[in-house]
Amino acid sequence: MLRKLTFCTALVAGSISIPAARAIELVQPELVAPVRPGEQTPSMQPANAPPRPGGEVRLQAPRPMIVQSHEAAPHALLASGCEACESCDSGCSTYNYGGWTLDNCSLGEAWALEDCLTPCCDTTNYGGWVSIGYHNNFERLSDENTQGLSFNDRPDNLNLHQAWLYFERVANGDDGCADWGYRFDIMYGLDAQKTQSYGNPRAFTPNQGRWDASLDHGAYGWAMPQAYLEYAQGDLRVKAGHFYTPLGYEVVQATGNFFYSHSLTFFNSEPFTHTGMLATYKVSDGVTLYGGWTLGWDTGFDQFGGGSNFLGGFSATVAEDVTYTYLATAGDLGWRGEGYSHSNVLNFKLSDCLTYILQSDYVNANTPAAFDNEDLGINQYLIYKLNDRWSLGSRMEWWKSNNPTGAAASYYELTGGINYRPHANLVIRPEVRYDWTPSNQAYEGLFGVDYNQFVFGIDAVLSF
Fold this sequence. Notes:
The chain has helices spanning 113-117, 192-195, 264-268, 440-447; strands at 94-97, 100-103, 125-135, 159-169, 179-189, 216-217, 220-233, 236-244, 273-284, 287-294, 308-319, 322-332, 338-349, 354-366, 372-385, 390-402, 408-423, 426-436, 453-463. By secondary structure, it is mainly beta.
C-alpha cells in the first residue's frame, strides 16, 4: 500500500482459476497481483476479530490472503487457457485515433518498481499496490454504530483502502540444495484494522495492543500482516513467523480477489493471520500437504490465553480440470476459543474462459465472553473471461451463524461485477450487491437497522 514512485509492475491480468494447493499455486481468477513478466502469478489470503473489551462480540474481523508475488496460497492458480483473447471468441478490435492505436485486448507492458529502481538486483523482490474505492452503503454486518464488523464500513466516501508494500527473498530449493528466504509486508489504509493482530491480548486497548494491534488513528491505520522467514529444500518449504492463513478462497489483498467487496464467510468464519510455523510438502505435481502449529487465530508474535492449534490439510488435482483444497485449524484458537474449523474449496474449469468455484467453511468454537458459536457458509463463484481486458463475475452466498442472543440466523448475499483492465498494472472493479435475510427481525433487534439492502461499489487497484 504505498504511494507510487515509478510504476512498473505487473498487474496479474489474470487467469480465471483458483484454489488448489501450494503445489498447484492458487489464486483467484482474474486477480490483480503484482507479477513481473515471465513469472508465475502469485496469490494471497486473510482472518477474524475477537470480542472487544467488555464482552462486546465482534463478528470476526477480516482475514487476509496476501498477494504473494512469487508463491501462491494453497489454492492453485490454474491457467485459464485464455492467454490470447481470441481464444475466447472475444472479437478483438483495433481503433485508430489521430495516430494513436488502441485495441480491446492488449494490456500494454507491465511495469515493476524493482525493475526501475534496482534492475540488476535479483535476490530481493519488492513492490506493492494502491487500492481506492467508493461504496454507497455499509457492507453487512456493519452500520454506523458497529463499524469494524466488516470491510467497506465507511460509505459515501472516496476511501484509500490499501497502500501496500512488500519485501521478500524467495527461498529457492528447486535444485535440491537448502536455501533461506523472508517476507515482510506493511500497509496503510481503511482496511488496516481488519488485518491487524486483533487476536493479541489487549488488542483493542489504545496503546497496549502488541505488534500492529494499536496502530490506528480514526478509521485508518497501519498493519504489518506478514513477517516471516522461509526455508526450502527440494519439495519441502517451511515458514516461521507471522503470516497469512492458507484457509479459504478470498484474501485481504485487493490484488487477490475478483470482487471489491467480501463475503460474510470470509470475514466471519476464517482466521486472517497466524504466528507460528507452517510446512508444505509437494508429494507430486497434483498433491501438496500442509502441516503446522500456531498461537491461535489472528495473533502477531503473541498469544491470547492458551492459544495453541494445529493448522494443516492438503490440496489435490482430483480430475483433469478440477482441484480440491481442504485446510483446517483445531485446538485452542485463542480469542475464538477451543474449537475446530475447516475450509473446502473446489475449483472447476468449465471451459478455457469459464471457471466455477465452490467453497464451504465450518467453525465450531466456544468464543470467550460470548456464546458457543457455530458458523456454516457456502459460497459459489462464476467467472467468465471475455478477453484480456474484460471479465464478468458473480458470487452467491449463504452464511448461517449463532448470533449473540444464541439464536441461529441465515444471511444471504448476491454480487455481480466486472473487471476492466485498461493497462496491465491497473484494474477497475464495479459491482452491485444485494444482502438479505429471512430473519430480518432478529437482525433489527441486534443492530436496529434493516438488513435487506442494495450496495453499489467500485474501486481501482494500481500495482507497481
